[in-house]
Amino acid sequence: MANQTRTVQDQVNLVGEGTVFEGTVRAKSDVRASGRIVGTLEVDGKTMIAEEGEVEGEIIATNVEIAGQVQGEIYVDERLVLKSTAQVDGTIETDRLVVEEGAEFTGECEMGTTLSESKAPSGEASWERDSVRSERSEAEDPEPSGEAAEA
């Protein structure tokens, strides 16, 4: 009966060693990759790239821990940890970064940025949707408010 009380957030999705996944992975719970992912990894939770794991593409997640290889863009809302065996080549945008001795990183890094503030693809799309919504609201309101008329 205890298993019935588990939530989606308690799950860990696995891409096992020897597995190659091509495409987009979207998860509302944690993801652990011991295999190879080519494409986009969007995780509303923690992403763990194991020492034998490899990602070629984009990682967008709340928290990320990398012990394997990543080539591409990494957007982290809270904390990115590069373990001592990590090899990262690409762009990093994160709020906080922890780098263990021995980790290798080549590329650009921007810290102190959350996903909602960053130019991450999903954030940018969200911003564009909000802009369109705002423009539609103004178009649907033919009478300007008093403040707008004064401006």
TrEMBL record:
Acidic residues bias locations: 140-151
InterPro entries associated with the record: BacA/B (IPR007607)
The superkingdom listed in its UniProt entry is: Bacteria
Return the Basic and acidic residues bias intervals. 126-139
Which Pfam family, giving just one, matches this sequence?
A: Bactofilin
Enumerate the residue ranges of region (Disordered).
108-151
Family (UniProt): Belongs to the bactofilin family.
UniProt protein name? Cytoskeletal protein CcmA (Bactofilin family)
User: What species does this protein belong to?
Assistant: Salinibacter ruber
